[in-house]
Amino acid sequence: MSSRPLKVKCAGGAAAQTLALMNAIYVTQGSNREFVIEYYPFGTGGYWKFEILEALNPHEIGNTAKLSVGHALDDIPLTPGEIVKSHPINSKGFSLEKVYSLIRKLKLDSLLLSFRHEVPINGSMKRLRGVDHSALIISGGYLPLHDKRVFESLDKRFTAGGLISPFGTTELNQFDYSVAIHYRIGDKRAKYSNPGTVGDDGVLDPKVIRNLVEELNLLDTRILVLSDEPALAQKLLSEVGVTAEVQQKRESIWFDINTMAKAKLFIGTWSQVSQLASVCVVNRGGVAYLPSNLTRKNSLKWKVDGINFYIPQFLDSTHDIYFKK
Asked: Which fold does the domain 156-322 belong to in CATH?
């Protein structure tokens, strides 16, 4: 049994960081064990800012400036989310990062990491629940949770840190919008021009959203769409008969998630922002929909009451969206 703080390794944007924090709180709640967040700003092959610093206590902050092996500090871009072309994970030749990726694909990482008492969560609730005091590190594939004590801790942390908190329930069952849609476009455009960067999907066909909203008799209600390209998302929806508002000014990711959390119905696309928003919606009394695999079966290794799944379909490879920007 270890009394050492649990090391929580994470990378990616604000939503990914928050899911890591959510999982860390879940694993250590009810015990005397503490945790330390170790953040890798270049761990995904791009640069992301450490966005949850204000939500952490001083003793929970580890090394937040680690670089992947072989990456030079001189190559750091200034724009969050920008791909670092010189990063080993993006190189066309051999790199250690690619060896790690292959090991993960072959599902050999759990065995190898167990020798250093590291548990990769890999999106599995079973794995998360199985983390005990013998574990020294957790990493990768953090999942959204709807746990009362976790949400109370997150709400307290965000409020105390001066961040907008989407985790409170003071406005329970009071909805600003009938429908909120998180329509991720951005990197999905690279499905055909740069395959492998966005998984196996592409830009969601807006007809899927239209059919879902219509099926739920909400087509004529107040609808909001949030996106990395809001004007384009609004246009795509309008082309299939969905009239949606967009935010005139984006304040922060926390503002966006808090806005989504105030919707009676939330429809997300495949992203960690959508996953995080979905549990915040459920926490406030709403209902959420996330994409399933192609048979409507939940292909994820977790389940939350109030989160349903729809069958995704994507814009055809000949659509202009993949070639024009």
From this structure: Rossmann fold (3.40.50)
